[in-house]
Amino acid sequence: MPDHFNTLPSVDIDTAGGRITQKRLRTAMRASVTSSALGMLWFAVAFGVPTTMFMEALGVSGVLIGAVVTVQQLAMIVQIPAALLLERLRERKKVWAVVTMAHRLMWFIPPVLPFLFKHNMALAAPVMLAVIGVSSILLQTVSAAWMSWMADLIPDPVKGRFWGRRQGVVMVAFLISTGFAGWLLERFPAPGEPGGSFTGFAIAFSLAAVFGAADIIVHCFVPEPRPEKHAPGENLRERLGASLREKDFLWLTLSMGMWAFSVGSVSSFGMVYLKRQFEVGYGALTAISVAAGIGTAVAGAFWGRLMDRIGCRTFGAVMMTVAPLTGISWFILNDSSLTLPWITGSLTCPQPVFIIFFSSLAAGAFYSGVGLCQFNLAGTIAPKQGRTLAMAIHWSVVGAMGAAGPLCGGRVMDWFGSHPVTMTLPGGLPFSYIHVMVLFHSLTVWLAALPLFVKISKRDVREMSLRRLVGNPLRAMSTLQNMLAMDTSSPKTRAKAVRNFGKYRTSEVTGVLMSQLDDARAEVREAVVDALGRIGTPEAVDALIEKMDDPETDLEHAIIKTLRKTRDPRIVPPLLRRLREGEKSMKMAVSRTLGEAGHRHVAPELLALFIAERDPKLAFAYAEALSRLHYTPAVDALTRFLRDAQGAGGSQRRALLLARLTGHPERFYALLSQEEAARGEGVDMLLNRLRKKAKKTAGGDVPTRSLLKKIETAFDDENYGAAILYCAELWRHTRGADQARGETVADRFFALCPELWRAGEKRPHGKTEALVAIHALGEAFTRV
Questions:
Q1: Is 480 in contact with 314 (CB distance < 8 Å)?
Q2: Per-residue pLDDT tens for 652-694?
Q3: Exposed, middle or buried: residue 342 (CB in 10 Å: 0-12, 13-18, 19+)?
Q4: Which of 107, 112, 269, 712 could pair with 209 as two cysteines, CB 3.0-4.6 Å apart?
Q5: CB 708 within 8 Å of CB 740
């Protein structure tokens, strides 16, 4: 994959007055990713299996297990007062570093709790909860500052790619950390088991604190751009309400709050259900957590690129729609085991572990997509002035709403513990609290969070339509695949993706294609031009016209050719300018484009150029455009043009142009082909149809039958001039019965025939000319 971070602009000045150059910015972004990877051991312990299982090992209730997440969510409320304070400071980084370091070092306390309270373990749980609460408050005090710092640092064009790449890297670190933590818990038996103790938990928490502190130290090397201060004179109420008065910011905040609430109501309890219902060990629980991390890491490799391509709003809506569907797996579990092939034989795996492992892969991918979207949109929508406070308000509201979810889930879990339900699922298991939580989560997302999210207005002209995704999911998936292919370094792959966009007229990618008009490879540039022409939106046409006027472009001829696919009248002025001033090949290309695109108002100028032109190639180009435009006044000039043909090929090509004016060109081409295959066959068939037509309409009109016979005889005798004159005479005879009609193309053509052709005149291409007259007679005769 090409490194998109190598083309970053110099975005800002840091708090010390130094420039954040392109090189410095790339280094900073990589340092941020590296530090976050180091902090993943702390994250895997504090927000993963070890903390949940530590509380479960202490024998606490479901409400207290849920309270672990609740206090972490409620701590977000402190972001608002903290942001008001931090916005007064010249630098965010120093305060962030001190406070966050204290927050990480607090995780040296949990390892000693079981030993301090070994004679009264009932006190260990509330103290652990207090540690989590104080640590979370310290973290949330500076979280908004960090997020606004990153929003100021990362340029908008690559925000999605940065967060996606960061997620992919840190999730690999998370997998390693989670696996290591799970190994530790398996290595040291849990309390309640023979020889069990809290030693595994103590080591895991201690290492988490060490790596968490290392995360902060490394991140201190990331520069901080100067923040934009809020407008002076605004009172506190105005500042607090300014962000939420921005409708998009309000919809995003409420939507993510409902999302956090629904996710929190189920996320902490799946592991508990597996352990209590199926007696799944820590190793298997860790493997499931690792599966979710794998899904997140794999998805992070391209979620960011996809989000930049289709638009953050569309991407988020898709993720929120699909993610809850992974919860179906909880309804198909049973008590059976599966025998799986293994390197040294076979492996017996409980069916619930197998099912939830693979559903966690998908869940990790889709749920992480929502998180990426939230980070990206929050930083984009939040106003630059006072961004720290805006981010604090967003995360505080989200945290306050999300805090209720785990408590609700805990109450549901405790209620089922005291009120067993007799209903069973198809797999034979009793309907339990986890199933209620999954259903509640799904309905809350689809009926509340998602409708609020789609209220956010369109952020980018490149954004893919939600209606398109819903209306044709298969086509949408193809579009997404082609968008990802656009990021490859292979010109053939990129050109193929571009051609697919044109083939399906994918208007949503117009902005993306416009940015590729200056691609280094000619095959990609030409594919982009063709695709924009096929799409034909006003934006696409504007881009093509602008590029056509670029004095350094090599795409002028390709653009003129592709404009044949659009009838947009704005293309006419630049094309006429080239028709008048361009060189020969340019004039030929322009005249064909004007003809095929159907711009009839240019026909008089084309006719004047055609009559005055002495170059046969240019004259033919003008003539072809006039015939495609069906410009009746051009009949005289095109008839003389046919009469003056010098070669057999030229005669047939000119005849086809005239046939397009006098009737259907495909029927003339069929007549011409029949005559080449078997002389007289096509003419006989056509004249027989005319006889039948005359018999029905004129009651066997004798002059008509006589003239049809004379045409046939003259053509058979190769007296082509006479055949043409008899066609003109028959037309005058037939036309005399309908003088009320205005002048037609046939009238003008047949009126000119006596002047140009004589009976018995030997002409090299008389047969082709006679076929044009017979075809014109047949076309006009059938319309009388």
A1: no
A2: 999 999 999 888 888 999 998 888 888 888 899 998 888 888 7
A3: exposed
A4: 107
A5: no
